[in-house]
Specification:
heterodimer, A: 629 residues, B: 331 residues, alpha+beta, Helix Hairpins, Immunoglobulin-like, 8 helices, 14 strands
């Protein structure tokens, strides 16, 4: 329903940010924060992509001299660490941060200042890694730095510390973002959106965030143990002192495998949203899709050992992990079934976001099948640490997560900017990226089977690897060119795109109920929901009134059936999240050099948190909630 | 893409080579290749089914193109009921396929690691940054015969490789013979290999182990049992060095790290050089073994393999030449 002007003015007054730089530093608007996340991640995607292209150039000929071993080792370490920790996971969190409140018809996240804090801390991690790179202290041991190679004996200097501490940054940031998403989805759904009426997208974000909360502590623990080994000579991973180098691998992959699904599950949420909208019918098998996501989320914690089949663990254990790993194909296969069934039985419209879904299915299924091969404890002995595995995880992460992310970008771009992206250039970018990617990475399967190990900076002539490597380089270059077209399209459409209107795709979910771009307060009224596809099922959206207009308030509802419980004050802009992130950054960076930084750095952090949580007089007053039609 | 790979399958023998999992020359590699072939067929069928379903869906999308209204509720319900009946079939097909693959994988795994009562020979392979120490259990003296960077295997006999590491984690991988197994400091891994086809193969470290991970290769020769016995006897014998300037310089400049049995050099940090000139390659597969490459390697190790543990020893050209000449006699 259209709000009157007076109402808009009052909301605008309550939800505006301070002007200028102060507003930039203090904002707690989830959309502004998410936009920062996405811009940062896209920039890093570009930089890490250039590193990849440089490495492809180096590998195009045997004995090529473009790079020496040190530069190559730094390049793949920086590429992997950036893509895994600073691009994929944060980009998915950004989508949640942007869309979850909109899809819930809420005015902000459950913890607005925590959202701001998580971005600033993430930025601290980004700067730690890339400023260190500018200063030539680049990590050079890959994106998982196994000891003893990363221990004090074999990795002197601070390269390994930078890597470990960058992880601490991004993991604390990810934990904050995930707690925020979980609390928002469970306690702030609009009245009537019971768990059974929750869109697949929200389920995906909920499960991915819960997985983050459960898996991240493992990697924070293991990188802290590594730092302790390096800084204060503990011997967790020193075999000579009865430490165990495999402990690192277990703890790392206990996080590392769920991480793959933390990246993939949000992508299934994007795909479900896009398929539903462009097939113009309710998703076939909503419950199956939700259960599949839950199943993947549970199984993900039971198969980390498939990254370690070659370390020589007991055979019976390997059989278990083989079966558990292959079992992922059941929920994943059923998801594919549901999406294809929906596409087939709807009135499918092949706009750009839908094309990305098709590219996703065609590519991801290949990654899944090569995943079944690497899941076999026996066969993996020929595949792991070869280019076959490089091909496999790029098919899964790029095909399975980045393609849906690009589709999601095109799909929600009109909501974020109020303008449509060019369809023609969108198709060009799609063709270049999907074609180039497949041309670039399919030959790597064969290279791996022909014996080419990963992470080699060069190879001798006469191995028969040259031609396939050249095709791979060509394909990668085409994909990067497509990426540039994609970004150019997004930038140009920002000012030149056709106005989108509230709901350009005729989509069924609540984020499309309000104006595009969304005003700072999102929707003028709190929507009331009685189906999975509210914008399709009721000609006029039912709404609820009673939430304050003069101050920042949100509605809190019950966990299962989303019955309205109370009105909750929503935090106003504040500089304290920024200050707290600065204090934490100082402590993390200091602890690379001296253990005393942990003690000394605790004081500024305590001061910042005290300022952050200082009680404020203004309180929400409770009052009756009225239902309006 | 997989379909394209399948079409390539008849050409796969063209993808063979001395370091290829597609060209098995031993029992373990053959078992894995059979498993791979099975997986390829199953995967190919699955991909064709998915691609077919997607094409069918797109054909329907094209047929109903331009239809702007949402599907009418009644028809969707009917279709959904039929689809819901198909769903368990899809799940069953996936589970059936996976069961086949898991079973096949289980038996392949057991075949690889079946404990053999008495392997014909025990060989200790130890990974170093960035070379391989190789020690044969001498069937005569029951001591160890040491060499480096070149593994000889008797055809048709099972050899037990005892894998360890001296510094960081490495991984032993000779794809034509067997799958890889990590070499982990503080642990010992056992890998049984049964090579069947005569010839030279190549292995390479498969776990990133630092700067020169790319130059940590291993020459592997499968030879007849008789030839193998003769080779081992030759390796067991001490060197018969010619005394001269080269030997004297070596003793001063190189013997702290390298051993030459029979010449009084007993360093353990670098590879044993007792029969170095009989090997096929130099510096873990970085150079072919020639008199000129030996001298180049002695003179400029950091230029040839940047980061290698072999230091740049300041030798006059005449001394380097003498050492190279001396080493070239160690056959």
């Amino acid at each position: 329903m259209t709000p009157d002007l007076d109402r808009r003015d009052r909301l605008a007054l309550a939800w505006r940010d301070p002007p200028g730089w102060w507003g930039f530093l203090t904002t707690v608007d989830h959309k502004r924060i998410a936009a920062r996340y996405i811009v940062t991640a896209v920039l890093l995607l570009f930089l890490a992509g250039l590193l990849a292209l440089d490495m492809r150039w180096q590998l195009s000929w045997a004995e090529n001299t473009r790079m020496g071993p040190q530069l190559y080792n730094e390049s793949f370490s920086l590429h992997g660490s950036t893509m895994l920790f600073l691009v994929s996971v944060p980009a998915m969190e950004a989508m949640a941060l942007w869309l979850v409140p909109l899809m819930l018809g809420q005015r902000n996240m459950a913890f607005p200042r925590l959202g701001a804090f998580s971005y600033w801390l993430y930025l601290g991690g980004v700067l730690t890694l890339w400023v260190a790179h500018a200063l030539d202290v680049t990590p050079d041991l890959g994106w998982f730095e196994y000891p003893p190679l990363s221990g004090p004996t074999y990795a002197p200097g601070h390269r390994a510390d930078i890597w470990a501490q960058m992880i601490t940054f991004t993991e604390v940031a990810a934990l904050c973002a995930s707690v925020n998403v979980v609390a928002t989805i469970l306690k702030m759904r609009p009245p009537g959106m019971t768990l059974a009426r929750m869109p697949v997208f929200l389920w995906a974000m909920l499960v991915a965030s819960l997985m983050t909360i459960l898996s991240m502590p493992a990697i924070m623990l293991v990188t802290s143990m590594l730092i302790a080994d390096r800084l204060v000579s503990t011997h967790f991973f020193a075999p000579a002192a009865h430490g165990d180098v495999l402990l690192f691998q277990h703890l790392f992959w206990f996080f590392g495998h769920p991480e793959v699904y933390i990246i993939f599950i949000p992508a299934t949420g994007f795909v479900s949203s896009i398929v539903e909208t462009f097939a113009r019918r309710r998703l076939f098998g909503h419950h199956v899709l939700v259960l599949a996501i839950l199943a993947i989320g549970c199984l993900a914690f039971g198969l980390w050992v498939h990254h370690m089949f070659a370390v020589g663990l007991p055979r019976l254990g390997n059989d278990f992990y083989t079966a558990a790993s292959m079992a992922i194909a059941v929920p994943a296969g059923l998801q594919i079934f549901c999406w294809i069934a929906t596409i087939a039985t709807g009135r499918t419209w092949l706009a750009t976001p839908m094309l990305w879904v098709l590219g996703f299915v065609a590519t991801f299924v290949l990654g899944g099948l090569s995943g079944v091969m690497t899941a076999s404890a026996a066969l993996d002995l020929q595949l792991t640490d070869s280019y076959f595995v490089v091909a496999h995880f790029h098919y899964v992460l790029v095909g399975g997560a980045m393609f849906p992310l690009f589709g999601a970008f095109c799909y929600w771009y009109p909501k974020a900017t109020g303008r449509l992206m060019s369809e023609r250039w969108g198709r060009v970018a799609f063709a270049l990226i999907v074609g180039g990617f497949n041309l670039g990475f399919a030959p790597m399967h064969l290279l791996g089977l022909m014996g080419m190990p990963r992470r080699v900076y060069t190879y001798p002539a006469g191995m028969g690897w040259d031609a396939l490597n050249q095709v791979a380089t060509l394909g990668s270059a085409i994909a990067v060119a497509g990426g540039l077209v994609f970004v150019a399209n997004a930038l140009l459409s920002y000012s030149r795109g056709a106005p989108a209107g509230a709901n350009p795709w005729g989509a069924p979910t609540l984020e499309w109920a309000g104006d595009s771009p969304s005003p700072p307060w999102n929707l003028a009224y709190t929507p009331v929901v009685d189906s999975l596809t509210p914008l399709w099922d009721s000609p006029v959206l039912r709404v609820m009134d009673g939430v304050a207009l003069e101050r920042r308030e949100v509605v809190v509802t019950s966990v299962v059936d989303a019955a309205p419980l109370y009105r909750q004050k929503s935090a106003s802009p504040s500089i304290w999240p920024f200050v707290a992130a600065l204090a934490v950054t100082a402590m993390f960076l200091g602890s690379i050099f001296t253990p005393w930084a942990i003690a000394a750095g605790a004081l500024p952090i305590a001061a910042a948190l005290t300022g952050w949580f200082w009680p404020q007089r203004e309180r929400a007053t409770t009052g009756p909630l009225r239902v309006r039609s | 893409m997989k379909a394209r790979l399948l079409a390539v399958c008849p050409l796969l023998h063209g993808c063979g080579g001395v370091q290829s999992a597609l060209d098995p020359g031993g029992d373990q590699a053959r078992a894995l290749f059979s498993l791979f072939a099975l997986m390829m067929w199953v995967s190919g069928v699955v991909y064709v089914v998915v691609a077919g379903a997607l094409s069918w869906a797109l054909w329907r999308a094209w047929r109903y193109r331009g239809a702007d209204s949402r599907a009418d509720g009644g028809m969707t319900l009917r279709i959904d009921r039929r689809l819901a009946q198909l769903l368990p079939l899809a799940a069953g097909a996936i589970i059936l396929g996976l069961t086949v693959l898991i079973t096949a994988s289980f038996f392949a795994d057991r075949a690889l690691f079946a404990t053999r009562a008495s392997p014909a020979l025990e060989v200790r392979v130890t990974g170093h940054q960035w070379w391989w120490r190789i020690q044969y259990r001498d069937p005569v003296s029951y001591g160890w015969v040491e060499t480096a960077n070149e593994l000889h295997l008797p055809q048709g006999q099972t050899v037990r490789l005892v894998l360890g590491a001296a510094d960081v984690i490495h991984s032993f991988w000779v794809p034509n013979v067997a799958g890889k197994l990590d070499m982990i400091p503080g642990r010992t891994n056992l890998l049984d290999v049964t090579a069947r086809r005569l010839g030279w193969y190549r292995g390479q470290c498969a776990e990133f182990c630092g700067t020169q991970h790319a130059h940590m290769a291993l020459a592997v020769k499968v030879e007849s049992p008789a030839a193998f016995r003769a080779w081992l006897a030759a390796q067991r014998a001490p060197a018969t060095p010619a005394a001269g300037r080269g030997a004297a310089v070596f003793q001063v400049a190189c013997a702290a790290c390298h051993a030459i049995r029979g010449a009084g050099a007993a360093g353990r940090a670098g590879p044993d050089l007792t029969h170095v000139a009989a090997r096929r390659s130099l510096a873990a597969g970085t150079l072919t073994m020639t008199r000129g490459n030996l001298q180049g390697w002695i003179a400029q190790p950091q230029a040839i393999k940047p980061g290698t543990s072999m230091p740049q020893i300041p030798l006059t050209p005449a001394d380097a030449d003498a050492v190279a000449t001396y080493l070239a006699t160690l056959r």
